[in-house]
Amino acid sequence: MHVSCVYIHGTGKFFSRFHHAKVLTYEQIPLGISYISSSLKKAGHSTEMSVYTPDTQAVEFLRGIQKNPSLFVLSVMDKDCVTSHDGYAGVPSLIKLIKSKYPDSKVLLCGTYITLLSQTDCAENDLKNTGADAVCIGDGEKAVVEYAEQTEKNNYRKTNNLWIKDKDGQWLKCETSLFVEDLDSLPYPDMDCWFDKCENFDDLQIKVQMGRGCCNRCIYCISQVFEKSSQGKYFRVRSAAGIVGEIEYLRKKYENLDFIILEVENGFFDAENFYSLCRALADENKKHDKKIKYSLTLAFTPLLMQNNAYIIDMMKQANVVAISFSIESGSLEIRNKLKRPYVTNEQIIEFCGKLHLYGIKTTIAVMYCYPFETLKTYNETIKLLQLCKPERIDTAVMGVISKTELERLKKEMNFGLPNLFDKLLYLTTQWRVYRKYKTLKEILFLRSDNKYVYPLVSLWNKIDRHKLAAAEKYQAKAKQAFDEQNYKTAIKYFNKIKIGRHNSWIYADRAIAKMRIKDYEGAVQDFDRMQAIEKKEVYEKLKKECCDMINQRII
Q: 302 preceded by cis ω (within 30°)?
């Protein structure tokens, strides 16, 4: 049977990255519908992938359907896709469009918002009004395959994780929804179906799922609803062997694979598992000349704060070059109210400082935490971010999600929406932080996901890659000249390299080269620059030798 998988975008900020059904990078590929596609293929069905956005024309969408599907699987990730005060309700209109051309085809809804909607009091009517024949609650890999087989046989029955509409238009509800606990048992997500929807890049970036669910209990988070939607273990992680197995598969399949995003709510949930994964990633990279770079998400735990130097060193060995984490607010008072993991601002600053020394880039997520937010607490957030100096800041306004603890508080406190002043403060967050340590060019191009800015950023990145290639060439020539004791030539090439924290060793090597040609004053300056980034006793001793030689000259 042929199945058409459709990824539906809403009108929110995230979806501005997608234009005319084009995904900008492979890192933005949604894993949920990709896992469903691969599960259907494993069961013997054929699939195709489509993208539906507020900009998609009906004729364009229908023209893109390659075969005559017996089943459409629609992945819904945003509430605007079902009902919207802005006038966009993509799901009902899309299903009506599908039924007009494929009247015998069945339509199944799945995705984040469908699970969320199923937990509300008005779920049955809202989902019935979409025109769908079935909906999936929670994990969909097994449930969608089961529904596809039932559709093939035209024989429907109660099935875990599914609501199926009967002949009378009533929901035949599953008795139980179950989480897929063994994530290693799932087939690797289908990436091939996205090739015609992604821009081509010399270096490929792909997401690899490391786990599902979350072990935190923040009062505003959608995880509270998801955890109650199904039975079984909510927070699940894959084994190091399972993750590395997928990486080896991807490396063989895509020769230009360069960067992998390990997707998980908290990569450091368990120390032993984390260390095992780091060692496995390092060992996998040792087998190949091309070293894959990684990024992952961490959440603060007591052990992370106590032993972070060792943890960062493990990440460095695994070639983790970027991490992201959420602080939500710079106010400890607000973080406590939100039931965020406990950590002090001083610990956050210290942690970020060590990451910078190791050349690991950081992304920090913060929220405007209305109604708890005041001008004082907001400025605490700004100050903390300025001291942490993240490469990127992800911002959001705290929203009230149905069935969460925050919704209960909203009813008790009777708070409404942020006022205009609050919104203006939120919009200035990135500018207020970045102006302290980023150049104007970097600040102007913060919104690289914008379709007008993106071509400029792409050009800028190409120029940077050209500079990096030139720097690597100069480094090789400098090293060769240094080994041949041609120190003046080595210094000439060292001077051509833009030196930053990630390659501060150049200061040290250039200082030693200057010592060899008896430029002791220049050597002292470079040793000081090196020590400002990373203090090492050996360079302090060499600097003292230079100072002694300078003093002897004066005498």
A: no
342-357 pLDDT, tens digit per residue, is 999 999 999 999 998 8
Q: Which of 5, 14, 88, 95 is nearest to 46 (CA)?
A: 5
Q: Check whether residue 416 and residue 313 sit in a common domain.
A: yes
Q: What percent of the chain shows pLDDT beyond 90?
A: 46
What predicted TM-score, i.e. pTM, was given to this entire model? 0.78
Residue 191 in any domain: the answer is no
Q: Count CB atoms within 10 A of the CB of residue 203.
A: 10
- Are 305 and 434 found together in one domain? yes
Q: Which of 153, 173, 193 finishes a domain?
A: 173
Q: What is the pLDDT of residues 35-89, one digit of tens each?
A: 999 999 999 999 999 888 777 777 778 888 878 899 999 998 776 677 654 444 5
Torsion from C-alpha of 57, 62, 63, 66, nearest 10 degrees: 140
> What tokens appear for 232 in the block?
């079984």
The number of distinct structural domains making up the chain is: 3
Please check whether residues 496 and 391 belong to one and the same domain: no
* Same domain for 258 and 400: yes
The answer for residues whose C-beta is within 8 angstroms of residue 544's C-beta and 6 or more apart is none
Domain with residue 64: its CATH number is 3.40.50.280
Give the range of the structural domain holding residue 27, as residue numbers without chain letter: 2-173
- Write a three-state SS string for 480-502: HHHHCCCHHHHHHHHHCCCCCHH
Q: What are residue 106's DSSP bridge partners? A: 71
Which residues have CB under 8 Å from 281's CB, separation 6+? 244, 247, 294, 318, 319, 320
- Give the integer Cα–Cα distance in Å for 159 and 134: 11
Cα separation, 166 vs 188, whole angstroms = 33
Distance CA 102, CA 151 (A): 14
Cβ proximity of 42 and 187 under 8 Å? yes
By C-alpha distance, which of 132, 130, 1 is closest to 69? 1
DSSP 8-state secondary structure symbol assigned to residue 513: H
Q: Which of 308, 346, 348, 353 is nearest to 327 (CA)?
A: 348
Bridging pattern class, strands 162-165 and 257-263: unpaired
Residue 267 CA to residue 206 CA, distance in Å, equals 17
Question: What is the distance between the alpha carbons of residues 165 and 102, in angstroms, rounded to a whole number?
Answer: 18
